[in-house]
Predict the 3D structure of the following.
Amino acid sequence: MTNRLSASEIARAAGVGRAAVSNWRERNPDFPAAPDGSFSALEVAAWLDKRRVPRDKRQADEPEGTTYGDRFRRALGLAGTLPSRLAPPKADPAAEVRKFAISGLHELRGAAARANYQELMLGLLQARAGEQWKVIRAELQRPMGSERMRRTLAQLEKLGLRFVEEIDPSRAMQIVESLDLIKDAENSTTTLLDDLLEDFAEFQMTSEFHTPRSIVRTVTELLQPTGGETIYDPCCGNGSFLAAAADRPGARGKITGRALAPFSWQIARMRLAMRDIDADLGDGPCNVLQHDVDRDRKFDVIMTNPPFAMRDWAEQLTDPRWRYGTPQRNRANFAWIQHVIDKLAPAGRAAVVMAPAATFAGGVEADIRRQLIDAQTVEAVIELPRGLFRSTGIPVDLWLLRAPSQSDDRVLFVSAKDRGRATSRVLRELTDAEIDEITAVHRQHRLGEAVLEPGFARTVHLSEISRQDYQLQPAIYLSSPQARFHSTEFATDVTGQHQQLSELTHRSAVLKNLVSRQLDRVDLASLATRNSRPAPPTVLLSEVCDVLAGPSGMLREIPADAAGIPVLTPRSLRRNRLVQEDLERVDPIARERLARYLLKTGDILCSRTGTIGRTALVTGEHRDSLFGPGFLRLRPNGPELSNHYLLHYLAAEWAQDWMDEHCSRTTIPSLSAKTMRQLPIWLPPLDQQEAITEIMSSLDEQLALQDEIADTAERLKYRLGQLIGAGDFPLND
C-alpha cells in the first residue's frame, strides 16, 4: 500500500463519491492536510475512524457501528491492524482505552445499546484481571460466528453479567484489542475501572447518580472510616463511596450496600470484587425505602447519594423509621435522611448528598426539618459548587448527620459554592486544597471550637436557627452582620473606598471640561438651518471589513485547560469593555487548530446571540485569545475605515435597530455573519472619522467614570450600612 493517496483514491477506499471527500475537507478544519497534493494514508485512516457509516450507507457485510475508517483500512489491506485511535501510545495506554471507550458510546444510539456496551466494556475489563482473559481473547481472535460469540459471552456471564441485546463481534474485538494495551493488568485495572465509570457518567443509565470523585473524597475525608467499623450505603449506585472507603489504608471494615437498579448493582458488585472485597450487596437491586432489608441493623459510618426528589418511593407510608414525620410521597428527600438516621449506631456518623431545596422546603418537609434539628441530628450543612455533576447543573449540599443520642446544640454551616476548578466548559471539581479547607473547619467544629471564617464557615447555635424558621441555607448564617463584621478590616476598607471616591470625583471635574471642548466641535448651528437631510452615501460592511462568526463544534472538541488559551464569550463583555474575570480556557492545541479565530489588537467583537449588538474593542490584553460562537469578529481590511469609528457606528441607534430587524427570530435571537456583512456603513473621510471618534469617546469616558463613581458610592453605602446592622455606628464630635 502506498503511504500517500489522492482525494480520488481516498474516495474509492472509503466507498464514497469524490464530492464527499471534498465536503469533508471544506467543512472540517481537522481533515488531514495535503501539502504536496496528496494525503497521508495513516492520517486519513485516523480521521475516518471517528466517522460512523450511516445505516442506509452500510454494505451488506458491515455490522452496526462500522466506521469509514474500518472500510478504508479493509480496502487498503489493513484489516488486521488496530485503528490509529488504539495504536500503542508512548506513555499512557489507560488514557487511550478511555478515549476509545467514550468514542464508542458516542457512536451508539439508545439507552439499551449504550448499557450493553458499558457492560461489555466493564465485563471485559474485569476479565482482563482474571483467568478468563486468555480464553476470551483466543475466542475473539478467531473468525467470529454467532456460536463463537455465545461462547465468549458465556465466559462473561460467569462474572454475573447479562446482555439485553446482541453483541457486535467486531466491536467486542476492538474492546479486547484496546484492553490488551494494558500490560500490568493486576495493578491498573481497578484504577482504570474507576476512571471509566467517571467517563461513563455522561450517559446516565439509571435513576441513581454517579457520585463525582471529588465529592467522594470530600465525604470520606470528613467521615474518615477506620478499620473494624461497619460501613453502609443504602443507595450505593455503582459503589463509589463503598470503594473509596475500602481504599483507605486500614479501613476495610464490614461493607454493606444496596442499589436501586440492576445495572448499578452489577457494576458495584464488579467494582468491589476487583478490590477483593467481600461486601454484602444483597442478591440484587433493592429499594430500601419500600423494603427495609436492613431492619434492626446499625452502622458506624453511612455515606449515600440518593436520587433527588424521588417520586412514588413507597407503597405505604406507615413506618417506624419516620419518627420525625411522614415524608411526602412525591419527594423522598426526608425519607432518605430519616432512613440514614434510623441505621446509625449510637456513636455513628453519616453524610448524605442532598438537593438545596431540602434546606428550605416548606409544608410537611419544614416540619420534619424542624424536628430533626431540635433532636440535634444535624451536625453540619456544607454547600458545594454547581457543576460537580454531569447529570445536573445545580449545586448540591452535604448533610452531615449524627445519631440522636449524641448531644450538641450547634450546627456547622460551610459555603464552598465559590470553590472548585474548571475541568471543562461546564464541569468543575474540588481541589485537594479545597477539600482540606472544608475538613479543617469540620474538625475544628467537632472538637467543640466555635468556627468563624467570614463568608466560608460558622458554628451556629440552635436558638439562632429557630429564629430563622429552621431554614438551613448556609448563606443565611454566613451573611449575617455578626458573621461578617470585623472592625479593623472594616475601618481599612472604608478608608480606602472614601479615598477612591474623592479621587474619582476630582477626575470627573477635569473630564467635564474635556467633554465640553469636544462637544463645541459639533456644528449644531449648521444642522439647525438645514431644511432637509440628504441620505448619506454608504458601503456594505463586507466591502471594508472581514466578518467572522466564532467556532462552535470545533471549540467543544478541545479539552479545557486552566492554564491554556482564554476564550472570550458574551459574559466577558461588560459596559462595552472586555474583562478578564471567569474566562474559560482551552488546551493550547487550539492555537493551531483554530488559528483563524485568534484575536488581534484592534479587532471588534459584536455579540450575535441573545442581546445582539453589544460591542467591545480588543486591546493588547486580549490579543491571541479565542472568541466563542456568541461573537462576530469584525476586522477592518483597509485604511479607509477606522476601527474606533466602526465601534461607535455599531453602537448608534440606527445600526442597533438594523441588527435587531435583521436577526433571526428563533427561541434565542441570532445574527449570522452573512447577514452582518450586508450592514450599510456611512464612510466619511478618515479625518472626520477620527473627530467623531474623539467626541464620542470623551462621552464614553465620562459615562464609564460616572459608573465607577456610582459603584464606589454604592459599596461605601453598603459598608456603612453594616455598622447599622451590627448596632455600632460611632460618630466624630
